[in-house]
Amino acid sequence: PSYGTSHANKMAVQLHVYDISQGLAKAMSMQFIGKQIDGVWHTSVVVFGTEYFYGGGIQRMAPGTTPFGAAIEVIEMGETGLTQEVFDEYVDSLNERFNVRTYDLFKNNCNNFSNELCQFLVNKPIPEHITGLPDHFLETPFGQFLKPMIEQYTNGSMGG
Fold first, then answer.
1. How far are the Cα atoms of 33, 64, 79, 140 from residue 28, in angstroms, in the given order?
2. SS3 of 12, please?
3. Are 49 and 63 in contact (CB under 8 A)?
4. What is the pTM of this model?
5. 32: closest CA among 129, 137, 154, 105?
6. How far lies 106's CA from each of 52, 132, 134, 155, 158, in Å?
7. Does the active-site annotation cover 42?
């Protein structure tokens, strides 16, 4: 695969999508929560030959080497004309909002981070079925029942 390819001073921006349930959400969600959920999504943004994601703080890794395995989907988000220097300054400015202490599985997670990056780079949000997943889960009685336990377990942890 070609990561961060360049066309006339523009860099491709990709959204890498991972299912951290490894297929269990798709297979079991109807039975457990009464609603079909196709995956528990973790996302990252690949640009300038680097994969950026939020988990235990803002992370930068070589594409395809994250702990989440192989992406199940790669979405071409468009191209950016921004320089890597401008982008890196922007990412650094997000450290206040995206760190271990501010992680919230439902409101401030990896998908919110990826959404911010894509909005900045290509002025386009990531797909709603990804950013809307926490709300879809919380709309169910089981989601409401589990919310306090999940929050206690995950908030302030590494998360994804």
1. 8, 27, 37, 14
2. strand
3. yes
4. 0.84
5. 137
6. 20, 9, 5, 9, 14
7. yes
Is 136 assigned a catalytic role?
no
Cα distance between residue 118 and residue 116, in whole Å:
6
Structure token digits, residue 16: 């890498």
Query: How many angstroms separate the CA atoms of 39 and 97, rounded?
Result: 25
Q: Are 109 and 103 in contact (CB under 8 A)?
A: yes
Residue-by-residue pLDDT tens, the chain, 160 positions: 445 555 568 999 999 999 988 888 888 887 877 888 888 899 999 999 999 999 889 999 999 999 998 999 999 999 999 999 999 999 999 999 999 999 888 889 999 999 999 999 999 999 999 998 878 787 877 777 878 887 777 654 444 5
* Tokens standing for residue 160: 């994804």
Q: Among residues 7, 16, 42, 136, which one is catalytic?
A: 42
| Active-site pick, 16, 110, 118, 136 | 110
